[in-house]
Amino acid sequence: CGSRGQLCSFNMWARNWRYLPWGSSCLWISPIRSMRRSLATLGSSGPRSVQSPRVPLSYKLLDGQDTLPPVVFLHGIFSNKNIFQAEAKTLAQQTGRKVLTMDARNHGESPHSPDCSYEAMSADLQALLQKLGLAPCVLIGHSMGGKTAMMLALQKPELVERLVSVDISPFVSPNMPNVFKIISLMESLNIPGDLSHSQAFKLLHEYLEPFTEDLSIRQYLFNSLVRIDGQYVWKVNGENLQQQKHQLLDTLQVQGVYRGRTLFLRDTHSSFLPSSHYSKIKLLFPEAQFQDIPDSGHITHIKKPQEFMNSILSFLS
């Protein structure tokens, strides 16, 4: 690639985005100008952290019937509860269920914490469900949120009526690619604070379009871009997540079996949920079903929203 090595590296990264571990590593810290210039390569193991106290999570709850198990959406890494608002409204309207969306710790409007482990996020979720009286519930988790959902189901199966994991395995995927090439490009993007939200998205869209034609990628990124005190920032505690990336990538460290109905959704060629994991997954989730949504990439609910909703509604019925 010669002097254009960085561009070529990103082009290769962008072509493989549909299989990148968005639910496994956080690359972003706010504000944009303070992003790290040097990041390590992804790993699959690392030191375990001591679980911190539970944090009060920011959430939105749509009302519904008390006689039906509520639905709880758990977002992926570098996202927040707003990413599932359309799906939450659709489910509430079509099923009559209560639907909860929430910000995981270190994301959105929830408090920050140095502990980014799945044990801690599962404890936060358990506390919120008990506070709102929403257990047992249906958990639908994308990527990082899927791992959190699986963790809770294995720890406290009585709290989970059924489970949906979207494009993520409870085990390490050895071929997850390095996504850190995007950092320098995003760091170099200066979004003036006086731009409107639509203008900021247009700028982000135009900036990334030469590197990836996938609109779902830009939509996913833009979901966490907010303007605070006249400055656009990424609303996620990337520094802490980066420091604990090994835990986020690692196999879930939990004992137990969840015997409730379980659906694993994935892209046909997913590296996050390879078919080679199916037999091991069945040991933890004996009732697991596996369903492919072709060409959905990793961000299934954005890339193939109708197919995603059809799968969820069918599973709930």
TrEMBL record:
It catalyses: 1-octadecanoyl-2-(9Z-octadecenoyl)-sn-glycerol + H2O = 2-(9Z-octadecenoyl)-glycerol + octadecanoate + H(+); 1-octadecanoyl-2-(5Z,8Z,11Z,14Z-eicosatetraenoyl)-sn-glycerol + H2O = 2-(5Z,8Z,11Z,14Z-eicosatetraenoyl)-glycerol + octadecanoate + H(+); 1-octadecanoyl-2-(4Z,7Z,10Z,13Z,16Z,19Z-docosahexaenoyl)-sn-glycerol + H2O = 2-(4Z,7Z,10Z,13Z,16Z,19Z-docosahexaenoyl)-glycerol + octadecanoate + H(+); 1,2-didecanoylglycerol + H2O = decanoylglycerol + decanoate + H(+). Keywords: Hydrolase. The keyword Hydrolase applies. Residues 69-305 form the AB hydrolase-1 domain. InterPro entries: AB_hydrolase_1, AB_hydrolase_fold. It comes from the Eukaryota. Its EC number is 3.1.1.116. Transmembrane segments: none annotated. GO terms for molecular function: carboxylic ester hydrolase activity. It is an enzyme of class 3 (hydrolase). One of its GO terms (cellular component) is mitochondrion. Belongs to the AB hydrolase superfamily. This is sn-1-specific diacylglycerol lipase ABHD11. It comes from Sarcophilus harrisii (Tasmanian devil). The gene is LOC100933418.
